[in-house]
Amino acid sequence: MIGIFDSGFGGLTMVREWLKISPEYDVLFLGDSARTPYGNRSITTITEFTEQGVLSLFAQGAKVVLIACNTASSDALRYLQSKYPEKKILGVLVPAVEEALEKTRFGRIGIIGTRGTIASNNYTQEIQKRISKFYNPSEKRAVKEPVITSVSAPLLVPLIEEGWIKKPETRMILKKYLFPLKHAHIDTLILACTHYPFLEQEFQKKMGKQCTIINSGAAQARKFRDYLQQHPEIEKNLSKKGLRQFYTTDSPDRFRELGSVFLGKKIGKHSIEKLEIE
Ligand code: DGL
Questions:
Q1: 33 lines ligand 1 (CB under 6 A)
Q2: In the CATH hierarchy, which fold is given to the domain comprising 94-216?
């Protein structure tokens, strides 16, 4: 089974993308909805919570765990990968960065996410680490040195969870957050948060059609499918009965309500269970 961990509900936007392209695999999703959001918490707390969540998914039978949450991936992934080298734990940053580097024309890349994601600086580091892999001097768009601009947007998660997607207040706040990115003339913008796909059209409209928008969850889903093709030894251990099991650390009713919005389809009552994690 594939385990997918998130700080709450947002990671279901990544599950939605995964199920679109690979519906045959069994998926266990855990949303730490009792302690969501992670975005403004300290690295120590985020790491502690993420470790508990990821280990719980392995305990439930996951063979590989994807961290869909950008904040948890930014703050805890490297630590978990070095603490548990025998376990397969993958995050969202590298897939999103690779997609951004494949698409950027001038290497002017923007990142927008929670405080935790932006403060970790890990997106920037992953871009800098990988840019040489994408550098090809014979290409017209060859980029040696990226110009990276990052912005934290702490107000967007609660606005999206409240369903304020089309409200003028949300558009105004978004415009303010996007100002430094527009000013930096970015050509590619990474939506480094599970919630932002709900505002993707608005991001595109405000940044203009010359700016490529990267949906990090969709990138993670696509890159994970490629990864499985390249790693048949891992792929063969993943069960494929189309099972979906959702775990929440809080009320299953609340999870069902908001989770169905994020997943884009109704989550059945019987496929949700409350899980105590510690
Ligand atoms: N899942 C988080 C992320 O992608 C957003 C919600 C939160 O702050 O927990 O960064």
A1: no
A2: Rossmann fold (3.40.50)
